[in-house]
Amino acid sequence: MRFKPGILFSVGEVSVVPVTWKAMRLCDFICTSYGYELYVTSLMRKKVRKFSFHATGLAFDARTRKMGADAWDIANELREYLKDGFQIIYGDPKHRDHIHVEFDPKR
Ligand SMILES: [Zn+2]
């Protein structure tokens, strides 16, 4: 698992929460089984315009640039393993170069 330089693991008092780390480790495991190393491009963000799980340590983005069509399968495997509370977004105009994974405790 690698992280984009400058990525934020905490903002002020708020840090990436354990459930997000768990999901990243699982994502890394799945990526490895496809022959890729997980490259996390975004964790926490300081300035978010609208509400974002990136502001609360409950989301990460996984780069898909080198994965081609495998990214669809990886996203689907994530959906299989991460059910309760997780949402995995990939393939829409805003999520073509990365898989967005978020945990919403209210879901
Ligand atoms: Zn995201």
Question: What does it look like?
Answer:
By secondary structure, this protein is an alpha+beta fold. It has a single domain (2-103), classed as Muramoyl-pentapeptide Carboxypeptidase, domain 2 (2-Layer Sandwich). Helices cover 26% and strands 23% of the residues. The protein contains two helices and seven strands, in the order βββαββαββ. A five-stranded mixed sheet has the order 1-4-5-7-6, with helices on one face. Strand 2 (10-11) and strand 3 (14-15) form a beta hairpin. The longest helix is centred in the N-terminal third of the chain and has 16 residues, at 18-33. The termini are far apart. The model has no long low-confidence stretch (mean pLDDT 95). The site of zinc ion has 5 residues, from strand 5. The site of zinc ion (ZN) has 5 residues, from strand 5.
Question: What small molecules are bound in this structure?
Answer: zinc ion
Helix/strand-derived category reads: alpha+beta
Q: How many H/I helices?
A: 2
**What is the gyration radius calculated from CA atoms?**
13 Å
Terminal CA distance reads 27 Å
Net shape: globular
How are the elements arranged and paired?
Layout: E1 2-3, E2 10-11, E3 14-15, H1 18-33, E4 39-42, E5 59-63, H2 70-81, E6 86-89, E7 98-103
Parallel strand pairs: 1-4
Antiparallel strand pairs: 2-3, 4-5, 5-7, 6-7
Task: Summarize the entry for a quick read.
Helices cover 26% and strands 23% of the residues. By secondary structure, the chain is an alpha+beta fold. The chain binds zinc ion.
